[in-house]
Write a structure and sequence with these properties.
7-stranded mixed beta sheet; 19 helices; 2 domains; alpha/beta; 17 strands; 4-stranded antiparallel beta sheet; Aspartate Aminotransferase, domain 1
């Protein structure tokens, strides 16, 4: 299939007419993200991290230049000024997600992984507990299994199936019905997969609650282009990364936690900022209330006002507008990518995830294949994309369960890899690639976001077209 670069936009609009309603993003790209086009960048790694607008930097720098701000753990004037800004940002986060302050608290962390670790290390797992999670999860959610395992909890993974990489709803409900008696039980899954873009049902939250589960929702990949309304759904814990929503600042994430669920958590240590009283000679300490008990040490306080600035930037555009633009471009890219054929009729690309825009986000993961049906090494694809100034990502994206299902890697061969002589304590990525000889060890991920446009999509499709009839 030839990509129609001259009159393709008219065809695109005929297929996705609502794209025209998102023109504010074209103006925004021209005025606030001009560096993209000035540098001829094709940025397709929004799932890895979003881009910031110039106005975010201007507002934040003006705030810092105009004030004197100190460590908020004090009552002096500079500290009080900073405390006020930190608390205002905290309340704004709750407001943005429509989370009642009577129900939820916002705990600032270094990133989404930090938020997830807070839950994992503090959750009251026991030998009467279950930790259930989907194959499709970020490694920071997978890592919680080590806390659960150390306390004797039973761990159950729920598979996802090809080609759409969705979990079977009946299987999920059956797993939630099977509770071990007497313990606390945690169910964890992503609102949107960072591997395939699949959006798993938010309805699982209340279904899990009905069977007595606490629910951990990883929303890091979902919230950049979708509305999460915590007055409508009520997960017990929600992990977020702000740079994935609006690019700046990095180094700040958040755990949104229901107050009633937070009371269950038992921290394994205490730190500066988390206690009301601690004594060396008395050998006692008392943790603070709510978010105070979970914000270890000194917050990255000078960056926190930039969180509120970033959320206001998203609100000035409208998350629904961002969602619609990404939906339209995603549909166009998938349609054209899957239509590409080699001279012998074999497909150029194999998609891992839904082939339409229903219940999926703008993360498009695939591999290119040659006319002989063999996968083209994703590392070679990345090299070619780099040379074309296209920023995409390759590998398994810290989501090994999704990668294993997509790439057809089975439990037996993976177990054999980990048992290789000489690799009992450490298996390198190259060792792993050699072990699964003949199968791809990773994939290619192109992801669309806040200021993606039709030209970005076309640049990528022209790049994909170059893979026709190549080995």
């Amino acid at each position: 299939m030839e990509i129609k670069t001259d009159y393709g936009f008219k065809e695109f609009l005929s297929r996705y007419p609502t794209y025209a309603d998102t023109s504010i993003l074209d103006e925004m790209r021209t005025n606030e993200y001009a560096r993209l086009d000035a540098g001829k960048h094709v940025y397709l790694d929004y799932t890895g991290g979003s881009l910031y607008a110039d106005c975010q930097l201007r507002e934040h720098m003006a705030l810092l230049r105009g004030g004197v701000f100190g460590n908020p753990h004090s009552a002096n004037p500079a500290s009080r000024a900073m405390t006020e800004l930190v608390e205002h940002a905290r309340q704004y986060v709750l407001r943005y997600f429509n989370a009642s302050p009577q129900e939820y608290v916002a705990i600032f962390t270094a990133n989404a992984s930090g938020a997830l670790k807070l839950v994992g290390e503090s959750y009251p797992f026991s030998n009467r507990s279950c930790y259930v999670l989907t194959f499709d999860n970020h490694n920071s959610v997978n890592g919680i299994r080590e806390f659960a395992r150390a306390k004797g909890a039973r761990i159950t993974y729920l598979p996802v199936g090809l080609p759409d990489m969705r979990a079977d709803n009946g299987m999920v409900i059956d797993a939630l019905k099977r509770l071990q008696g007497g313990g606390d039980n945690l169910f964890a899954y992503p609102a949107q997969s960072n591997f395939s873009g699949v959006q798993h049902p938010l309805e699982w939250i209340e279904q899990a609650h009905a069977y007595g589960w606490d629910v951990l929702l990883d929303a890091a990949a979902f919230t950049p282009t979708n509305r999460l309304d915590l007055s409508q759904v009520h997960p017990d814990f929600v992990s977020l990364s702000f740079y994935k929503i609006f690019g700046y600042p990095t180094g700040v994430g958040c755990l949104l936690a229901r107050r009633m669920a937070l009371q269950k958590l038992r921290r394994p240590w205490f730190a500066g900022g988390t206690i009301t009283v601690a004594s060396v000679q008395g050998d006692k300490y008392y943790l603070g209330e709510g978010e105070m008990a979970f914000e270890d040490g000194t917050l990255n306080y000078l960056t926190l006002p930039a969180v509120e600035i970033g959320l206001k930037h998203i609100e000035s555009i409208g998350i629904d507008t961002i969602h619609e633009r990404v939906r339209c471009l995603t549909g166009w890219v998938i349609e054209n990518l899957l239509a590409l054929r080699h001279h012998n009729g074999k497909p150029v690309a194999r998609l891992y995830g839904p082939a339409n825009t229903e219940r999926r986000g703008g993360t498009i993961t695939f591999n290119f294949y040659g006319p002989d049906g063999r996968a083209i090494d994703h590392r070679l694809v990345e090299q070619k994309a780099n040379a074309a100034n296209i920023s995409l990502r390759t590998g398994c994206f810290c989501n090994p369960g999704g990668g294993e299902i997509a790439l057809g890697l089975e439990a037996q061969e993976l177990a054999a890899c980990f048992r290789q002589p000489g690799h009992e304590h450490r298996l390198t990525l190259e060792d792993f690639r050699l072990c699964i000889d003949g199968k791809s060890s990773g994939a290619v991920r192109a992801s669309l976001g806040i200021v993606s446009n039709f030209e970005d999509a076309q640049h990528f499709l022209r790049f994909a077209e170059q893979m026709r009839d190549t080995a």
